[in-house]
Amino acid sequence: MRWDRFFEDLEDQLDSEWEAERAALDTEAERLRLSRVPIRERVVALAAAGAQVVVEVAGGGTVSGRVSRVGLDWWALETSARRPVVALVPLSAALTVGTTAEAVLSSVREAAPGSVLAQRMTFGFVLRDVVRRRIPTTVHLTDGRALAGTIDRAGADHLDLALHEPGVPRRADNVTGFRLVPFAAVALVRLDAPADLP
């Protein structure tokens, strides 16, 4: 009888040690997984959850709203203003992303690269669609300035902006100047008219 109890105790001890080792391995595997998750995948999870966020962008500005789309190197927010607009934010211009504790934890658990098509849509690609639609914009720069106008062209790493007053159509007599703006200088592009993004 004593030997039976002795062997049962040994089995319990071995089982406990295996459980502890398995838990340690699971914890380490999760740490390794998290070390490989880029912020883009977390933003994809925020979009899938329809999370509300507040984004601080380079240049000191903030934009708040619901994450609606995520491309390769940009994301779109539908602002929660009285007149909703869309803001396109290059991932590199986002300084911080504020949201609820639940959304933060969910974005870690649900992190995924998203659709193959979305992974191929670059900032330049979405801006070329804005050009095609002739949507009036306000381009917020990383130094804090804002330029209102219409994007005439979007190249590989820059855009051409025809400057004019907000709410005024882009016509030759309304244009007050032109700017070539490198994407690296863009904090966000606010679409000043309703738009259906690709």
Labels describing this entry:
single chain, 198 residues, alpha+beta, SH3 type barrels, 2 domains, 5 helices, elongated, Fis family transcriptional regulator
Number of discrete domains: 2
Q: Roughly what fraction of the amino acids lie in strands? A: 25-35%
Q: Tell me the CATH topology of the largest domain.
A: SH3 type barrels
- Order of secondary-structure elements: HHEEEEEHHHEEEEE
Q: Write down the Rg.
A: 24 Å
**Helix content percent band:** 25-40%
- Global morphology: elongated
- In the CATH classification, which architecture of the largest domain applies? Roll
Major beta-sheet overview: 10 strands, antiparallel
Q: Strand arrangement, largest sheet?
A: 5-1-2-3-4-10-6-7-8-9
Q: How confident overall, as mean pLDDT? A: 87
- What's the total number of strands? 10
Report how far apart the termini are: 74 Å
Structural class: alpha+beta
Summed up, the helix count is: 5
Which parts are unreliable, with pLDDT below 50 for 5 consecutive residues or more? none
CATH class of the largest domain, please?
Mainly Beta
